[in-house]
Design a protein that fits this description.
binds magnesium ion, Aldehyde Dehydrogenase, Chain A, domain 1, Aldehyde Dehydrogenase, Chain A, domain 2, 7-stranded mixed β-sheet, binds NADP nicotinamide-adenine-dinucleotide phosphate, 2 domains, alpha/beta, 6-stranded mixed β-sheet
């Protein structure tokens, strides 16, 4: 059993099962047994089951949100959105089974057609920062494509995944089609990688663990997609609406207490607008409502654990904080939203993913310099560009080596558009119209006339 702690209070909130190696094997074997029948469910019926699953999730949004507020310290507004995102992903991919068509390719002497066939058992490994959405981004398209799924939530945040597994059964998904296997990465997660019946790993988490997963998958030439860390840039040009850019910047990095792989944790500001931007950023940061996550008004909650809070504090110990917001204090794992000014591209605060409510701000000289600074990173997940010049917005969006850019906005993840990283931020893409293909083999068949 794993003891679960409320990030907001530091108090024990309960416990969750932690699967052994033998239990992980049994779950994988049951998923493999369930596969042939699930693969053969007719497209229309599989679609209906996924829509029913979405409807059952929808009936439990408040309950799921409540679990996430308690277990992960997410603000109630965020947690509600996250549960709704599970429903929306299921509804979106419920339209995939009848549309998973191949191609007919002209050939001499016959007919050539392609098929997208499911892989078998897919292993999905999820981090603690967005337990519900990240699980759904994997299981919704994987199930729609006819795979069965074993899902490992993070050890710290298993409650919503366990509940979603129960809701799947309630909705009528057959036993073994979606199995939640809570436990440790070193036990359950590694077994997904080493077990030959698991044909693909969809991993989201740290770059460090992702590299090990990829190496492990190489052993069996197992398919793998990786969604890893980030150190994304928010580039603000002097011609932008500086008030709007400064007002929105805190939300782009402090949402979910900065525990967001897409956090714009580096702000680059054109030198001529630097002072004005900082002057407007400060009140926006200090006004952020960092409150108990159960409070409807809360805009930022605590960090996930004492250990993670300490790691974020270590970064702050090495730098001067220019200004910071507040936090409610007490025994929870709180760090106030903090702004650091730097011109040192070698500083850890500029290079490393802090994964907490800390943002570093640096001035730049011109467009080429901004792109060069943004790309001077091992990561490449997302980024924002603020400018009133549409041409520049597009040029810079094309110039930044990252998978998800937004111009005059900080949005990055919509379930119906592709999401993933360049460089060490990941491998492959999730979401969007093509996601089910990532859970299939493409088969080519030639039939002679
Ligand atoms: P993590 O330590 O890499 O853990 C992620 C998941 O992998 C957890 O379920 C973990 O299990 C499991 N795991 C750990 N070691 C494993 C191993 N050897 N084999 C198989 N599975 C293993 O990441 P985290 O600390 O939870 O999350 C923070 C990181 O995730 C950040 O770097 C962040 O940027 C990244 N992230 C990226 C995205 C994205 O979409 N690109 C999204 C969210 C987070 P345990 O429960 O035992 O730890
Ligand atoms: Mg970890």
């Amino acid at each position: 059993m794993t003891t679960l702690i409320s990030p907001a209070t530091g108090q024990r909130i309960g416990e969750a099962p932690s699967a052994s190696l033998a239990e992980s094997d049994a779950a994988i074997e049951r998923a493999a047994e369930a596969f042939p029948a699930w693969r053969d469910v007719t497209p229309g019926e599989r679609a209906r089951l996924l829509r029913r699953f979405a409807a059952v999730v929808d009936e439990h949004i408040e309950e799921l949100a409540d679990l996430e507020v308690r277990n992960a310290g997410h603000t109630r507004g965020n947690a509600r959105w996250e549960a709704g995102n599970v429903r929306d992903c299921l509804n979106y991919y419920s339209a995939a089974p009848e549309r998973l068509f191949g191609r007919q390719i002209p050939v001499a002497g016959g007919v050539d057609v392609t098929f997208h066939e499911p892989l078998g058992v897919v292993g999905i490994i999820v981090p603690w920062n967005f337990p519900m959405p990240i699980a759904a981004w994997g299981f919704a398209p994987a199930l729609a494509a006819g795979n069965t799924v074993v899902l490992k939530p993070a050890e710290l945040t298993p409650l919503t995944a366990i509940r979603i597994g129960e809701l799947a059964l309630e909705a009528g998904l057959p036993e073994g089609v979606l199995t939640v296997v809570p436990g440790k990465g070193s036990v359950v997660g590694e077994r997904f990688v080493t077990h030959p019946l698991v044909r693909k790993i969809a991993f989201t988490g740290s770059t460090e663990v992702g590299k090990r997963i990829m190496a492990g998958c190489a052993e069996q030439v197992k398919k793998v997609t990786l969604e890893l860390g980030g150190k994304s840039a928010n580039i603000v040009f002097a011609d932008a609406d500086i008030a709007a850019a400064a007002a929105s910047a805190p939300y782009a990095v402090f949402d979910n207490a900065g525990q967001d792989c897409c956090a714009r944790s580096r702000i680059l500001v054109e030198r001529s607008a630097y002072d004005e931007f900082l002057g407007r950023l400060e009140p926006a940061v200090t006004a952020l409502r960092v409150l108990d996550p159960g409070d409807e008004a809360s805009e930022m909650g605590p960090l996930i654990s004492a250990g993670h809070r300490d790691s974020v504090r270590r970064y702050l110990g090495d730098v001067d904080v220019a200004f910071a917001g507040t936090d409610p204090g007490g025994p929870g794992f709180w760090v106030p939203p903090s702004v650091v000014l730097t011109d040192d591209t070698a500083a850890p605060i500029w290079r490393e993913e802090v994964f907490g409510p800390v943002v570093a701000v640096m001035p730049f000289d011109d467009e080429a310099h901004a792109v060069e600074l943004a790309n001077d990173s091992d990561f490449g997940l997302s980024g924002s560009i603020y400018t009133s010049d549409l041409g520049r917005g597009l040029r810079v969006a094309r110039g930044v080596e990252a998978g998800n850019l937004s111009v005059n906005s900080h949005s990055s993840v919509r379930y119906w558009t592709p999401f993933g990283g360049y460089k060490q931020s990941g491998l492959g893409r999730e979401l969007g119209p093509d996601a089910p293909h990532a859970f299939t083999e493409e088969k080519n068949v030639f039939i002679a006339h």
